[in-house]
Specification:
Strand order of the largest sheet: 2-17-4-13-14
Largest sheet: 5 strands, antiparallel
Number of helices: 11
Oligomer: single chain
Length: 439
């Protein structure tokens, strides 16, 4: 008997697309041992299974296919959430906090080894001055006025970070001040040497070329981050004095701050502290003595996000399982089984802000959830969430293994207990519904 493989693919894709859209996930990949365990579970389940006559209606077929795929999707979501609730998961993750973010913000870089969070310091930070970059503001010139320089080849040198760059350009007859300022603005910005150029214009028709260093702070023995000159350039000089490119309007300076009362300096507004925190200074303290506290706290946002994901996937699966109860009387059995599990955990979950509504859906009180996560013993307090996720994982595996358990059927005969051999799988009816009339 020939099998039309193309037709099989079409009907399989039709069912999965029409009734339960399939999403790919790394959790759908398995090792040989996983597949062997599934096979052994199917053999054991069907060995003692009674003989049934199944409801062969299109509605039952669609329900079985949709239920299996919904269970698979729910299982993947639970596994992803559960992995973040393990001992090395989100309950043990920390993030840095700053009591006054307008003064400074911080990121936790982490420490190698066990119990690294315990050695992360908490400290006070007071900011006196932010680190500044160097700004050169050129001469304000009438934009539409012609250049007061002769046409020809001009150049100037820029010294920055112990490197020297020469910029060459042409001045043409009829060029205006704005023309050459715009030309140099593009030339310098596109060079990517650590300088940013921009044009400053006023309401009176004047414009000036502004040059800023990307870096901040100063190193020992230097007062500037870059210097511009055309004294020893290879082409005609004069453009530096004419445009005022060497006018330093803001000299660079280091950040000044105190950590636990000890004065510190930094050339950048972003630096590391004890190789644990990456601190970014955002502004000086409003008054002397005003500081921000920087330390570690539980990553409540990640915890909340993962628990919300668990609740949403549970509610979607509950909706799929209870769809069209009038057409599938056995679906009430599944709802009752899920309800039995939820009632077991309802009391403990309610204390964490997770409550089950009258229709069985899971609701979350964010404020109560975050309050519970902020407690010192949050790992122990959130163990009911882990247990609930594990129970849901076992249930979704069972449904995915045999969705036919919740399809309308009539028992024909019971097998003789303990004296049976492996028989044709009742779960093969699931595959038969997909491939019937195509082979």
């Amino acid at each position: 008997m020939a099998v039309n493989v193309g037709a099989l693919n079409q009907v399989y894709n039709h069912y999965l697309t029409e009734y339960a859209p399939k999403t790919n996930s790394p959790l759908d990949t398995h090792k040989k041992s996983d597949l062997r365990n599934i096979y052994n579970s199917i053999v054991k389940m069907n060995k003692e299974s009674p003989l049934y006559i199944l409801d062969k209606s299109e509605a039952s077929k669609a329900y079985a296919v949709g239920l299996k795929e919904s269970a698979r999707t729910f299982r993947n979501s639970v596994m992803a959430t559960r992995s973040t609730l393990d001992e090395d998961g989100v309950l043990d993750q920390k993030k840095a906090y700053s009591s006054h973010p307008e003064i400074a913000s911080a990121k936790y870089m982490g420490l190698p080894g066990e119990n690294s969070d315990a050695s992360a310091p908490t400290f006070k930070l007071e900011v006196a001055e932010l680190a500044k970059n160097q700004v050169n503001l050129g001469n304000p010139l009438i934009s539409e006025e012609k250049l007061d320089l002769a046409p020809g080849s001009y150049s100037f040198d820029v010294s920055i970070k112990d490197a020297s760059y020469e910029f060459q350009f042409e001045l043409h007859e009829g060029d205006t001040n704005f023309d050459i300022q715009t030309r140099l603005q593009r030339l310098i910005s596109n060079a990517n040497i650590g300088l940013e150029a921009s044009l400053i214009e006023d309401d009176e028709g004047n414009s000036a070329l502004k040059l800023e260093s990307v870096a901040t702070g100063v190193s020992s023995g230097k007062d500037t981050l870059f210097e511009i000159s055309d004294d020893n350039t290879s082409k005609t000089k004069g453009i530096v004095d004419y445009l005022g490119l060497d006018n330093v309007s803001q000299p660079p300076s280091n950040a000044l701050f105190e950590i636990n009362g000890i004065e510190r300096t930094a050339s950048s507004n972003t630096f590391t502290v004890e190789k644990v925190y990456e601190v970014t200074l955002n502004g000086p303290s409003s008054e002397p003595g005003i500081s921000t506290e920087i330390g570690l706290k539980n990553d409540v946002d990640s915890l909340s996000e993962n628990i919300h994901s668990l609740a949403e996937s549970y509610n979607r699966f509950l909706d799929d399982a209870s769809a069209n109860p009038g057409s599938h009387s056995k679906s009430s059995q599944l709802i009752n089984e899920i309800g039995y599990i939820t009632r077991h955990y309802a009391g403990k979950l309610d204390a964490l802000g997770l409550s089950f509504l009258a229709d069985g859906h899971l609701s979350i009180d964010d404020e109560q959830l975050k309050s519970a996560a902020a407690e010192p013993d949050s790992n122990e307090a959130f163990s009911p969430v882990k247990d609930f996720a594990n129970s849901m994982l076992r249930k979704s595996n069972q449904i995915s293994l045999n969705p036919m358990q919740y399809v309308n059927k009539t028992i024909v005969a019971y097998k003789n207990p303990g004296k049976n051999f492996p028989s044709p799988y009742i779960t093969s009816a699931y595959s038969g519904m997909l491939f019937n009339n195509y082979c």
